[in-house]
GDSL esterase/lipase (Triticum aestivum), 373 residues
Amino acid sequence: MMAPLVRRLFLVALALLPAFSAAAEPRYTAVFSFGDSLADTGNEFALTGGATGNTPPYGDTFFGVPTGRASDGRLVLDFVVEALGLPHPRPYFAGETMADFQQGVNFAYGRSTALGPEFFESKGFTLFMPVSLENQTEWFRNVLQLAGSVEEQRKLMATSLVMMGEMGIHDYLIFITGKLTEAEIRTFVPHIVGAIRSVITEVIDAGAKTVVVRGMIPLGCQPLMLALFEGTGADYNRATGCLTRLNDLARKHNHALMGMILELRRAYRGTGVSILYADQMDPVIKLVFEPSKYGFGDKPLAACCGGSGTYNFDPTFATLCGMPGANKCADPSKYVSWDGIHLTDAANRHVAGNVLRSIVLRQTPYMAHLSSS
Ligand SMILES: *[C@@H]1O[C@H](CO)[C@@H](O)[C@H](O)[C@H]1NC(C)=O
């Protein structure tokens, strides 16, 4: 099935760029994707069978069956590759040979952290299922080995579009639910961004020419966070109803991400490498702030599928979407949040429009502002 809205947004994006010509846009042959459950299209599912998204009603809106995607349908990555006319990258754990990966690989893994387990252990946290960007980097090296000689590896990477992230949500979730103070959590931002940076330099050094870095979504608008902080006297943004300090944390993360990207652009100047930032914050804030303008319903801060309460999310995690006793809204396309943590197919489509703009226009307003300041 096509993605008509994304296709239309893509065409609009093209129309916005007068100098655009088909010849100027690199023709990618594959997508290499890194990330967590926001981009996992079946890795955790293939490896453990126990992923978020392994039971109905996950997949109900699109696909018709659970695929391991943490949504009722497609992820941002799905919409982006469809709009660019590229094949869907194969989840790393759903392939074995280079033939499986020739058209791209998705290393994104549900609940993956940016930071490795040592970092969490040093702060007194034990990860019950540690998968981090270190694992994803190792899997990337394995695929490169399959590609053959260094020359062949570089050829493959040069025509690939690398989609990095979003990464870091799970790191922040662990710290936030672990009751660390926000001041303390802020000191980890450079570490998290540093872990993302390591992967970016590794893929570029392996020959990648285009890397799209997807930013953090507004943590303070997630039903999960809203339910966790309900009644604690936390600060809410009056216009959106989102948690101010958590959105500030997400913005701080994105700011550090953009600073890192600018630094890498300087380091790789003159090498033909493009490192692009794709904002995922504003598109979600817009949906939450003015849902009706975008065709969404009047409960943009409640999960479509979940438990109960103001945000339809059970903060004790006893009744989550996909579990017995969970409820599901009548029309997921009217909701921003699918299960309280992940976005609906409809919201992902909207965010994908913004990510596509960054890829096609090769700029974002934020970056322009930062470069000139
Ligand atoms: C990820 O790496 C850690 C070591 O850092 C290891 O214990 C774990 O088994 C790896 N996970 C997977 C799925 O490969």
Q: What stands out?
A: Residues 116-117, 130-131, 134-135 surround 2-acetamido-2-deoxy-beta-D-glucopyranose (CB under 6 Å).
